[in-house]
# Entry
Amino acid sequence: MTDTATANAPRPDSRAPESVLIRPWPKVVFLYPTFCCATVFFLLSWLGVGKADGAGGSPFLGNTFMLALLLNLLVFSFDFSRIKTITILIAGIAVMLLILWGDTKTNVTGFLGGMFGAIDIRMNTAFYGFLSAGLGFLLALVFVNTRFNYYEINARELLHHHGYLGDIQRWSTEGLEMNKEIYDVVEFLLLRSGRLIFQPATAKKAIVLDNVANVNRIEKQVNDLLSVVAVRLNQQPGPG
# Structure
């Protein structure tokens, strides 16, 4: 009877990974759009694109870069929850409709166009190059640090690898609970990132991992791995 029950039990999924690596990233990685923009604009400025004769840097590049930088800094200013994001989108649409309605009464778009057209921000090639190199160096340091500070889940343990000397902290995966939160829509759009919360049965506090890139893929891999662990535990013969 026991042999029949064991034969009918679900088999572990052979596609499940043997271990899953989880690397929480610091929030500075969300500056990568500014890094990319500074790198591209450095090349464009070096080639003289949009540069007026004797007038320094290009106002088009300068204005565009400043707009991109301010938009990027919004990631650090607010947590864009789903409700807040929808509210901002509705408010933006309402403002646009209000401007179009006001344009029927007076030349609102012409006034706004003239006001924004008067903005003249100029950066030289050295500014873009130095900022690109500086951000690139910081991002490289962050990348190296995540090679020494990360979490690993296998069939038996949840491990925290930390420190440059290979320190490890361990928790058993038996009874391990996992929750996923996508609390910032903009951060999810930038790196598909979110938060993973682990609650080991032997730990008093939950383990909270913020800014996990590709969080949906990581969650699926961990679920596949933990499901294999659960199947193996169910298949173990009981006492006597």
About this structure: Confidence is low (pLDDT under 50) at residues 1-10.
